[in-house]
Amino acid sequence: MTAGETAGAPASGYQDQVAQICDSYDNDPHRMLDILRDVQDRFRWIARETMQTVAEKTGLTQIAVEGVASFYAFLSLAPKGRITIRLCDDIVDQFAGLPEVTESFEKALGIGIGETTSDGGFSLEYTPCIGMCDQAPAAMINDVIVTNLTPEKTRALVAALKSGKRPEDLISPDFDDLTPHQRAVTMVENNIRHAGAVLLGPAAPDAGLKNALDLTPSRIIKELEDSGLRGCGGAGFPTGRKWRFAAETEAERRFVICNADEGEPGTFKDRVLLTERPHLLIEGMTIAARAVGAREGLLYLRGEYIYLRDLLEEVLADRRARGLLGDGIMGVDGFDFDIRLQLGAGAYICGEEGALISSCEGLPGEPKTRPPFPVTRGYLGFPTVVNNVETLCHAARILDRGSKWFFDMGTEGSHGTKLFSVSGDCLNPGIYELPYGLSLKELLEMAGGEDAAAVLVGGPSGAMIARDTFDRKLTFDDLATGGAITVFSKDRNVLEIVEYYMSFFVHESCGYCTPCRVGNVLLQKAVAKFREGLANPEDIAYLKDLSGTIIETSRCGLGMTSPNPILSTLENFPLVYSAMAKPSKDRIRDTFDIQSAIDGARKLAKRRSYVFDRDFSQ
Amino acid sequence: MPDSQDAPAADLPKARIATASLAGCFGCHMAILDIDERLIDLMALVEFDRSPLTDIKKFTKRCDIGIIEGGCCNEENVHVLQDFRENCDILIGLGQCAIMGGLPAMRNAIMHSDEPLRECLEEAYITGRYIRNKTHNIPNDPALPLLLDKVYACSEVVEMDYQIPGCAPTGDVIFETLSKLLTGKFRGFERETIKFD
Ligand SMILES: Cc1cc2nc3c(=O)[nH]c(=O)nc-3n(C[C@H](O)[C@H](O)[C@H](O)COP(=O)(O)O)c2cc1C
Ligand code: SF4
Ligand code: SF4
Ligand code: FES
Any CB–CB contact under 8 A between A150 and chain B? Predict the structure, then answer.
């Protein structure tokens, strides 16, 4: 046992506390993620002894509990500091000054990334995108978000924390007196740059729900089908069709799940909807419940957005109090529906709907084999509609204003408006709600990013686009995107960006499929070779070949899209690769450097090479 | 055999073949001998130049084909491989060690160390549990070639033209491949002959 582990060993009486936590979730193994989150909060780590208690209480084996505890980045099997600082290490943050910010955190705390201070006060970590890309560099300090970090700001933060202030006090001296909404907007700016007609403009509260109650479930679904609404979480599946599948599957119970995992680097639109339109979202979920016949709903909120928990709980409570959730909604006998908030714990893969369902079920967040699809066999084996936050908000507005109103916006095949999360090298990062069909160029002009050299559309699982094709249209059929638009200026190194995003996928692969678990590591290494000038011209074919294998043989969307940063840059920035590849001389590889290869041995043996050191005889 | 389609035609000029064992176990060279009596057919088509099989240590002339067993773990391997590339028209990697580094490349797995090579040698000669090394030293005779920082596949050091997979490839695959290459009929491997499960 290391010193750290001894220091953090659970205090005596821990069993009672752990048992209490389990009791508060009725010892339900499906609530494992909540139980372990609470254990983590209470003890700042999940010790073996506590896992044993959890296992006994929930009737699982200890290894099953450990399987969950070890899966999520925010659960820790070694003691963490009372204050854990998680810096977003996305390439956007790196370009916005993360190295300097990291250095000043490290200096001020006296520890490096991945370490905990010896007094157990602080831990410092890197984490992928936390959805604050428009105000990078950003970090989580326990449950609090800090943004626009600079070295000076960092030093002041650490000094305040060391003097005994709570992370909350860093946000406002009157933090406890603020409403949940005030807290959220004091921590994080919304940066709404353009409000469109559907989501961010004015809307009559619960008008959609009222209309829905006058319609049969099948008519509600028909409205959605006619509206042309397609999923906003990335895959673009027609929402009406998804609801109809779930409604038509015979079952005793059905579920509606809102996917608020928003993990795709560069995406932060759901954050803004959750902050500014939470009622619209719950209204949308309630309409979905009415349409498919669900009595139970889950709102899966990514662990990084825990600062929005109180706000959302308040909204749910308010709606229950006003008869908009619970039994007999709006006085309609038999229309019962309620929603439980499920927090995630730092895993990008949990945004994939199968993994999200696994996570809600208290399992490690691993995708499920498809088919069956969630609409036929989802949460706990019952038909489940999983929709993105934005999709559900749209649905509520469609029921308010009618399918034709929505259908008439946008273009053929891509109807209505879309929220774009613009970040990176532009003057006005933030949220733009615009009808589908505008060109990337038009969006860049609005955001003050027209000098961009490269734009990542749809995050790393999308495509990197070069200047010469900025006139392409933002639609499902041309440049499809869940909403992330990450802008890079000509000063940025494309290969550095690609390598970062490959390391992101390496980190976030759930590890189930070998091609995804191992292949992404090989891809990252191959890109690193290009960056170091050690790649051969044939390595370009190797990249394509390996990418093809990973895409073809992976079980879920992560592996099917993880090679995209490479494939799209090979296509759109071919010179970046060919300029770095070194051809052989006389068929002997110029990329193999014998001098650096024997340097270590030369020092160990304290002699020179009799083959490769010219002056060996001297 | 002579009437088989793949049998080498006897009227071509003889091809010169050289072979070398780098960081390998010599198993691939033993596998060449697994051609058994077909070696006689093959010898009608080829003559061997530099090779452990002939004990010729230096190239006597330019060769048509060089066959390499093993990857590169030390400077001498690199030197020999580069020499082969310069003196052979076609280079064939024979066996997994030549293709990927193979078993010797297990030492490449020592990654989380500032001095992986030292760690590897110390475990091999000093600290390993089953080591009986009374000198407590890592061997360092001046005649020993310097080790490389890691084991390299042949294709990382020079361009390779063909690779014959297996550990070791069977005599059948070696004979088939060589005789087809010599008669210009090689079109890739039959899946059945190179799958190992
Ligand atoms: C690796 C991966 C991550 C995903 N992350 C998210 C996410 O964070 N939010 C989201 O809404 N959908 C995400 N999705 C898509 C979901 O699987 C699913 O398609 C979506 O939630 C369906 O909702 P929609 O039809 O409303 O878009 C992800 C998919 C994959 C493969
Ligand atoms: S593709 Fe990757 S993330 Fe998806 S199931 Fe397989 S290993 Fe897990
Ligand atoms: S491939 Fe196998 S048989 Fe050939 S040298 Fe390597 S270990 Fe020996
Ligand atoms: S928060 Fe750092 S890139 Fe999204």
Answer: no
The answer, yes or no, to whether any atom of ligand 3 lies below 6 A from the CB of B90, is: no
Q: What tokens appear for A327 in the block?
A: 């039994």
What 3-state class would DSSP assign to A606?
A: coil
Q: A491 alpha carbon to ligand 4 midpoint, in Å?
A: 19
Mean pLDDT of B29-45: 92
CA–CA separation, A497 and A505 (whole Å)? 13
Number of neighbours of residue A163 by Cβ within 10 angstroms: 8
Q: How far is B54 from chain A (nearest CA, A)?
A: 24
CA-based nearest distance B95→chain A, Å: 20
The per-residue DSSP string of A404-448 comes to HHHHTSEETTEESEEEEEEEESSSS-EEEEEETT-BHHHHHHHHT
A422-488, CATH topology level: Ubiquitin-like (UB roll) (3.10.20)
Instruction: Say how many Å lie between the CA of residue A137 and the centre of ligand 4.
Output: 7
**Model pLDDT for residues A66-91, shown as the tens digit of each residue:** 999 999 999 999 999 999 999 999 99
User: CA torsion A215→A218→A221→A223, rounded to 10°?
Assistant: -50
Q: Which residues of A are less than 8 Å from B82 in CB distance?
A: 588
Residue of the CA atom closest to atom 8 of ligand 2: A510
Tell me which of 3.40.50.150, 3.40.1390.20, 2.60.40.10, 3.40.50.700 is the CATH number of domain B6-106+147-194: 3.40.50.700
Please state the rounded mean pLDDT for residues A538-567: 97
Query: What b/e string do you get for A330-360 counting C-beta neighbours within 10 Å, with b at 16 or more?
Result: eeeeebebbbebbbbbbbbbbbbbbbbbbbb
In this chain, the answer to whether the domains covering A194-407 and A508-592 adopt an identical fold is no
Domain boundaries, chain B: 6-106+147-194
Strands A144-146 and A139-141 turn out to be: antiparallel
Q: How far is the CA of A231 from the centre of ligand 1 (A)?
A: 9
Q: What does the pLDDT look like over B91-144, one tens digit per residue?
A: 999 999 999 999 999 999 988 888 999 999 999 999 999 999 999 899 999 999
Q: Does any CB of chain B come closer than 8 Å to the CB of residue A611? A: yes
Q: How far is A534 from chain B (nearest CA, A)?
A: 10
Question: Does the beta carbon of A351 lie inside 6 Å of ligand 1?
Answer: yes
Instruction: List the CATH code of the domain at A508-592.
Output: 1.20.1440.230
Output the CA torsion A437→A438→A440→A446 (10° steps): -150
How do the domains of chain A map onto residue ranges?
14-69, 83-177, 194-407, 422-488, 508-592
**Residue of B168, B144, B10, B163 whose CA lies nearest to B74:** B144
CATH of A194-407, one of 1.10.3720.10, 3.40.50.2300, 3.40.50.300, 3.40.50.11540: 3.40.50.11540
User: Can you tell me the distance from the alpha carbon of A516 to that of A563, in angstroms, rounded to the nearest whole number?
Assistant: 10
Q: A51-81: string of b/e by CB count within 10 Å (b at 16+)? A: bebbbbbbebeeebbbebbebbbbbbeebbb
Name which of A253, A210, A276 is nearest A385 in CA terms: A253
Structure tokens at A536: 């051969």
| Ligand 3 neighbourhood includes B28 CB (under 6 angstroms) | yes
Are A14 and A43 within 8 A, CB to CB? yes
Dump pLDDT digits (tens) for A569-602. 999 999 999 999 999 999 999 999 999 999 999 9
Q: Is the pLDDT of residue A332 over 50?
A: yes
Domain A83-177 grouped into CATH 3.40.50.720 = no
